[in-house]
């Protein structure tokens, strides 16, 4: 059995098999969850929650970009932000739909191969809004590449 300290300071005894391990503090608000030491449901949800509460709605999970709909407008899609992501490698910048767009666009130009972006989610999750951001970014950079 393990003794677990709860946020309110109280302690409970739990079977080890009932506990998920917590990641070290250096992984707080981790940009790519594939890098988490302990990859479990609790650590993924806690990471996404911490990032969301800091208006960091984009998070990588390996090759995938996880987006949480903020249900409000955030200043993440300005011309200045487009310019910041243009031509930059995905690992050089924080997670963002523009980083994924730029990676696909550059791969299309360099490899002369079609590329695709798959945007999935529940109804109301923000698929249409993210598709608009993809089009905004590609339209902005295509004429200047």
UniProtKB/TrEMBL annotation:
Keywords: Actin-binding, ATP-binding, Coiled coil, Motor protein, Myosin, Nucleotide-binding. Gene3D superfamilies: Kinesin motor domain. One of its GO terms (biological process) is actin filament organization. GO terms for cellular component: cytoplasm; membrane; myosin complex. GO terms for molecular function: actin filament binding; ATP binding; microfilament motor activity. ATP binds at residues 121-128. The keyword Nucleotide-binding applies. The keyword Coiled coil applies. Residues 28-145 form the Myosin motor domain. It comes from the Eukaryota. Belongs to the TRAFAC class myosin-kinesin ATPase superfamily. Myosin family. This is Myosin motor domain-containing protein. It comes from Euplotes crassus.
